[in-house]
Sequence to fold (368 residues):
Amino acid sequence: MLQNLSPAQKKLIVCLLLFLSTLAVFIQLRSHDFVNLDDEQYVTQNSNVKAGLTFKGVAWAFTTTYADFWHPLTWLSHMLDWQLFGPWAGGHHLTSLILHATNAVLLFLALLALTGAFWQSAFVAALFSLHPLHVESVAWVAERKDILSTLFILFSLLAYARYARNPGWKCGLAVFVPFLLSLMAKPTYVTLPLVLLLLDYWPLNRMEVRVQPPEPKTKQKQPQREEKKGPDGKAILLSLVKEKIPLLMASLLFGIVAIVVQSRSETSTFTDWPFWVRTANALISTVDYLWMMLWPAGLAPFYPHPGMAVSPVKALLAGAVILAVSVIAVRYARRLPYLFVGWFGYLITLAPVSGLIQVGKHSMADRY
Fold:
């Protein structure tokens, strides 16, 4: 049946299935209430949010660092929800659900645009949508910032697929603006410029060194000409980095703001534990996340930080696993480029929330 459909029709069907299946699995949220973990701070006891969308509220959203973040779009999202639904928690949950279902569709479209692999992209998008590790982000109203920032970053990735094939300021602006909006919802994706460099390697193949083919030989003898060569690998890499300077500057700015704001927070524990403790916890959690992705059992809303009781042996073993996979990914980068990009993309995107810069009393979190 699908064989008789056009590519556009198949794409539409997959998008509908992703959206509807996400709604079907999470629709029970409409009868759920708020929880007593940050929902009071973000919504139910926040007078600025409960006033709805007002000029005063918008000004507050763009100037406050309340809740240890500068994320004005997240505050505006909560204000709009209160304007529409008031204290009915189901409405707030449904907004998060619709955003998450939209993200599943956008991820499919972005992966398809980047790779051209239809069914693989559909599978990854379905896994993203329905994996138990995403329940926390969808079912917890206070974590709206996670879903909202992901929404904009997926628009940015979708635009980058077009930019890579047709570079220009208009396509570049379509990448940059959603990136800024994502950072204004939550600064998690400050690593996007590095991820884009990985995508330049594969699947976009923008780092290939192209040599101009020599002119065909003719019977008449002509003066020997030097073979024209394109830019070498270093020049190509430099040009790819230079085009991302605006993104890198935005990442640096938002990264500094996030560190400064969170360092002043009452929940900041940056100086509570020495660097080796934070490094050990980051190594362990990086490997634990991999296991949780494969076997998502025993999930919890809070994983307490071990502090000085962190196991050095477990940290060394985790470090050995990370090093081994990294060596394999580099060794087989040409044969298995998706392993190289996937693995280092995982490490890079996880770095800001790995615990090296510790905020709060948790060692890890499902939403990360």
